[in-house]
Amino acid sequence: MARAARILLAKPGLDGHDRGVKVVARALRDAGYEVIYTGLHQTPEMVVAAAIQEDVDAIGLSILSGAHNVLFPRITALLRERGIEDVVVFGGGIIPEDDMPGLAAAGIGRIFNPGTSLEEIVRWVGEHVRPRGVAA
Q1: If the chain, 136 residues long, is cut into consecutive pieces of 10 residues, what is the mean pLDDT of each piece?
Q2: Which of 10, 27, 89, 134 could form a disulfide with 38 if both were Cys (CB 3.0 to 4.6 A apart)?
Q3: What is the pTM of this model?
């Protein structure tokens, strides 16, 4: 039996509000994924270290502070520096549409804005995240 994909959910930066990421964690868990939530106030280095330690297949980032253009690319850069190219990174939060092309160029697979349904997030994860080492 194949293992479930492992997804790390993290709140990088100084946000003190994590209700949304906890709701997403529950939806992904209910959909059969193994979910690890790092908690509040994570640095990019902490997020990448947790991803490596937990051997995850994807990282989901949640942010409300407006620091997404700094923190999200820093996380993908740290993954590349560590030679980790096959971990899917996605995010959500208050992120202007104008910032999305830059985040995509930095390696963020998808940004979910407020109002996105849990079904859409679960469906996208199902289409893009596989246990590493398992063919799509």
Answers
A1: 90 90 97 96 97 97 94 98 96 95 98 96 97 70
A2: 10
A3: 0.94
